[in-house]
Fold this sequence. Notes:
The structure is a single chain. 55% of the residues lie in helices and 11% in strands. By secondary structure, it is an alpha/beta fold. The strands form 2 sheets. Strands 3-2-1-4-7 form a 5-stranded mixed beta sheet, sandwiched between helices. The chain has a 3-stranded mixed beta sheet with strand order 5-8-6. Helix 2 packs across helix 11. The radius of gyration is 23 Å and the shape is globular.
Amino acid sequence: MKKQGCLSGRIRFNLLFNLIIIVLVAIPFLNNKFTISLQLILSGWFVVFTILYLIHTYRLMKQHDLTSVSKKEYELNFKYIMTTFIYKEPYALISETLKNLSQLNHSKNIILIIGFEERSPNLKETQLLIQENFSTNFQELLLTVHPYNVEGEIPGKCSNCNYVQRFAVEHIRLIDPNNEENYYMTNFDIDTRFQNNYIEIFDKKIQSTKVDERHLIVYQPILFYNWGLDKCCIFVRITSLIRNVLMMGALIPFNINVMSIFGFSMKLMIDGNYTHPAYQMEDIICFIRWTLVSKQLIRIEPIYTATLSGPTSGKNYWDEVSEWARQLRRWTIGAAEVFHYFVIKSRKMKLSFKLVGWVSMYVLYYCIILKGQNILFLSSIIASQVMDDENEAIIFYLKLAPLAIQYICFALIFIINNRSLYMIKHIGGTEQIGIIRNLFHFILAPIIIFIYGCVAFYALMEVAIRGKEVCKHGASKKEVLQEKLNILSVQ
């Protein structure tokens, strides 16, 4: 049988990431002036991301303010399916999410599919509770059970997503044959909260898109993680703020990939051959797989609706830090293995400036910016201790410049994120953080990002040494999310 996953019996092209990191480690020992220039350039990218974040936040606020005052009845132009996935999540969390979905303005026009795993605890009991409490809240409520240990799959969200998507297509072909092109899907996690008008905004976004482009676009709602962050450790809070920034400042503008919650046409999903069941990051693999199959770069379009996603959680401080590191490791390994998949499969695509640009941006973002610049900073410190610098005073201040730039960007991020909370307050996005604690988080933010990069670097080395063995999906812990994050119940 042909091997699946990040090895595939060939050279692992994700090792390019490791090679780049090794080069970055060596640069400070070879050319100090070039090191400083490189650090300033990378800091400049952070400035660009922050500026784009501010622009998209402004557009989001403008859209929110306009739609929140609109009382006009809206008639949908397309049909909608929403899919989510359950493994070990507690029923209390599931129930609150389904209450939120029930409050959507067009919930009666939604087909909701919930994909369970065969090994899900209390499977029958949970399914019965869902059917009893929510079966009449949607156009249809469908529950599936993904079988365990299927050949060619790895257990996890990708394989379950693939199963649910194929089930959805079979179902639509049965109840509404020859109308697949009119259906649009939203893939989301069970710890998600949507605005009541999410479907309307999604529908308007599709309607405003050219007809011949609608099936070549993946739609990305704007994700916030300000869900009980005042109860989370500093590692989780800073990472959550940065993920919000990088989504609006990097992933969407530079068309890198979608994240966690995204919409797409059923036709694109079918043409793209669904979700690859042998990988672990369903958002990245969907975007890349569909690009490869369609033989042209899929475009990412933002849906300007503030959507709430649950951050990493744990039973106590150290459990939360451990879970944070574990999930960061999984994200890093997932990005590396998917890059290998892309290089192997992209040989069938026609070389173009867009394709080369996307590959360059993917490597720059996932390898150099998220991981490499932290290792470069550490290496430059070590190099400065063992090598003599010329013009020490000037070099000293130039070395401080990237840190000063980071603090300016973080100041803007903290302020703008706080001003954005009014858009998600009514769906649970509340937090109370005192001035002293906020200042403490601000001061330590660059250190947290540095530790983030070191953990990601470790994960890259791990996948380089252990290979396919570490390419597995470890579900995030959500057992304590309901209690810890003080979810806002939907009346």
